[in-house]
DNA sequence: AATTCGGGGCA
DNA sequence: TGCCCAGAATT
């Protein structure tokens, strides 16, 4: 008859893991007062434990309780925060302490909505304070918990999406009901320790995991895929015109690309950003007839930093004007010569389709 | 819903 | 470099 009887497997196994492998010596755990839990939670927003520990110790040594924080000049608070980043956290912390002095008798309120009304405290931080400081049955949902729940339950989609986050809160809420009443503080700490030290973003220790039989991602071999990564910003798109000119002998006009940049020094088709430029180039090098071009199917090509769409325009029976024959960057190329030249793959593919 | 805040660790 | 981390406030 152990203390976790009746809980769901997630809470039960997580607490068993925590008792053996969790972190029990973090400075805000001794003593675990509401003020120290609050301060640690604010400092730990978007900031790793290793970075926070020395700041926390300096801060509580200088400002050991809500009253001294509220009475301290903001400059002192910011000085203690200096180097941690996200200085709005420090300003909010200071303002919240003063609100506590006004509204709550100089202490942090033991009430979810009252906590949420304080600047710098959102739903997850309020849950962390109530559960860790008072043992109340309130869930949290930070980056660690999101990662763990996405894997355990096979939740797809970037956890930052509102719809996904809503699902994760519902799951977190459900799990909380399976936690033994006297273990909520440990449960909250256990989730964060578990995500930070075992169920890590990269190379999670699934072989050592106390929850490996509860994990959808492990069962389906999708641990590395979940949680779904944040979608990268859509790559910038660039468009260009590629001029495909055949002469009377069936050769094609290639141009050596500049020595730097994309496809540096390779042989490719003469390329222009718009019709005005292309028309001007055509007039100078070929002559009349720009508008007789046939527009071929566009070529899409992805690079690491942008997507390029090339619109090929094709002419047959073209000839270079006499005045540009010395242009070193231009060259008529027969089909047999193509394989001996450095040509970008999508251009080579196009040429092979158009040079039968 | 997207943006902003911003310091350090790490691939 | 770009991405990630015990998120919340702002627009």
From TrEMBL:
Cofactor: [4Fe-4S] cluster
Residue span, HhH-GPD domain: 43-197
Reaction(s) this enzyme catalyzes, per UniProt: Hydrolyzes free adenine bases from 7,8-dihydro-8-oxoguanine:adenine mismatched double-stranded DNA, leaving an apurinic site
Keywords in alphabetical order: 4Fe-4S, DNA damage, DNA repair, Glycosidase, Hydrolase, Iron, Iron-sulfur, Metal-binding
GO BP terms in the entry: base-excision repair; mismatch repair
Enzyme Commission designation: 3.2.2.31
Presence of keyword Iron: yes
Co-factor: note: Binds 1 [4Fe-4S] cluster.
GO molecular function: 4 iron, 4 sulfur cluster binding; 8-oxo-7,8-dihydroguanine DNA N-glycosylase activity; adenine/guanine mispair binding; metal ion binding; oxidized purine DNA binding; purine-specific mismatch base pair DNA N-glycosylase activity
Primary role: Adenine glycosylase active on G-A mispairs. MutY also corrects error-prone DNA synthesis past GO lesions which are due to the oxidatively damaged form of guanine: 7,8-dihydro-8-oxoguanine (8-oxo-dGTP).
Family: Belongs to the Nth/MutY family.
Listed name of the protein: Adenine DNA glycosylase
Organism for this UniProt entry: Luteimonas viscosa
């Amino acid at each position: 008859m152990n203390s976790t009887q009746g809980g769901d497997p997630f809470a039960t196994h997580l607490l068993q893991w925590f008792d053996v492998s969790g972190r029990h010596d973090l400075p805000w755990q001794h003593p675990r007062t509401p003020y120290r839990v609050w301060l640690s939670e604010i400092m730990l927003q978007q900031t790793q434990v290793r970075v926070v520990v020395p700041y926390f110790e300096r801060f509580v040594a200088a400002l050991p309780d809500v009253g001294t924080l509220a009475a301290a000049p903001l400059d002192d608070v910011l000085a203690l925060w200096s180097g941690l980043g996200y200085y709005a956290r420090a300003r909010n912390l200071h303002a919240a302490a003063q609100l506590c002095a006004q509204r709550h008798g100089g202490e942090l309120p033991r009430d979810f909505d009252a906590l949420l009304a304080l600047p710098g405290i959102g739903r997850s931080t309020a849950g962390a304070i109530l559960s860790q400081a008072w043992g109340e049955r309130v869930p949290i949902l930070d980056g660690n918990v999101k990662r763990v729940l996405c894997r355990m339950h096979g939740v797809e989609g970037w956890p930052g999406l509102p719809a996904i986050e809503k699902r994760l809160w519902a799951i977190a809420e459900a799990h909380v009901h399976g936690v033994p009443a006297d273990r909520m503080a440990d449960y909250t700490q256990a989730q964060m320790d578990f995500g930070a030290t075992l169920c890590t973003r990269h190379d999670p220790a699934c072989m050592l995991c106390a929850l490996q039989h509860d994990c959808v991602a492990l069962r389906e071999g999708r641990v590395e895929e979940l949680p779904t990564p944040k979608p990268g910003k859509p790559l910038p798109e660039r468009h260009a015109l590629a001029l495909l000119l055949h002469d009377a002998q069936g050769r094609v006009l290639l141009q050596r690309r500049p020595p730097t940049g994309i496809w540096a020094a390779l042989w490719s088709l003469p390329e222009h950003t718009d019709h005005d430029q292309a028309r001007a180039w055509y007039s100078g090098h070929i002559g009349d007839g720009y508008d007789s071009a046939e527009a071929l199917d566009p070529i899409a090509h992805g690079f690491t930093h942008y997507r390029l769409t090339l619109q090929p325009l094709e002419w047959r029976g073209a000839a270079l004007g006499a005045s540009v024959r010395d242009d070193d960057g231009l060259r008529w190329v027969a089909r047999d010569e193509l394989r001996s030249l450095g040509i970008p793959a999508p251009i080579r593919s196009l040429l092979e389709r158009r040079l039968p």
